[in-house]
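Audit log entry. Action: structure prediction of a protein-small molecule complex. Ligand: magnesium ion. The ligand was supplied as SMILES and no pocket hint was given, so placement is left entirely to the predictor. Protonation state taken as written. Sequence taken verbatim from the request; no trimming, no tag removal. Recorded inputs:
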Amino acid sequence: MLKKTDMSDLQLAGESTETGPSKDAFFSVRDIHAYYGESYIVQGISFDLQEGEILALLGRNGAGKTSTLRTLARVDDPALKSGEIYLAGESLHDKKAYQAAQMGIQLVPEDRRIIGGLTVEENLILAQVSEPRGWELERIYEHFPRLAERRTQIGTTLSGGEQQMLAVARALAREVKLLFLDEPYEGLAPVIVQEIEKIVRQIKELGITTIIVEQNAVAALKLADRAIIVDMGEIVYSGSAQDVLDDEDLRNEYLAI
Ligand SMILES: Nc1ncnc2c1ncn2[C@@H]1O[C@H](COP(=O)(O)OP(=O)(O)OP(=O)(O)O)[C@@H](O)[C@H]1O
Ligand SMILES: [Mg+2]
């Protein structure tokens, strides 16, 4: 396990000292720092991801998980002040959120943002209005039979689990290369969590790279290949998901599970 004091080892391992796109990583994050106004929140996060990997981004409430995802998706707030981000060799740190979306980054936020007054199908069609488009409706319905059954239902009247499925389906309706899921299991019954897990596994099989932020760390770790734990805006652990599952001290210290 890498403690804060071992961060130099992490850098020696090649995770953050270089600049420019990494030769062998699909997604490279190099020492990013981001602020909400004067508040310094994301304090030097670095990691590399291979294509098709699932990364669990974990940490206590207020650790900076959502802020990290928002920074990576190039949302204005928090503002990225320094650091570099590359997707498939192309720089992201100099892009806006809409450009990041065009490059294939899709953030499914915690509140899911289903558009009121529109049916399930209209929510999906709306996602396909802007280029580049992703999956066709038929393909989405094959993967999400619950949504197919409810295609004419107003999206905001769906159950929490169904709304989460719609939010993920909407990301797939756009071209997605890198999917960010912010607490996808929040408030969902275990049986629905299993359905979402199944979908994330299918997405992985299609080669889509995913970062999952979850309070339900055990569920996220079982799905993930690798894990990062953040605390106060910094990485305090980076390694295999299985190692976190096996390390009770680490979980007690940073995850309260
Ligand atoms: N819009 C904002 N303006 C100022 N500070 C913010 C803003 N949003 C979040 N913060 C602060 O940034 C820190 C990190 O918040 P963030 O939402 O990234 O944490 P998190 O790890 O996602 O937590 P949680 O598990 O509760 O969702 C917190 O101290 C929070 O108060
Ligand atoms: Mg959060």
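Audit: result stored. DSSP finds eleven helices and ten strands in the chain. The first strand starts at residue 27 and ends at 36.
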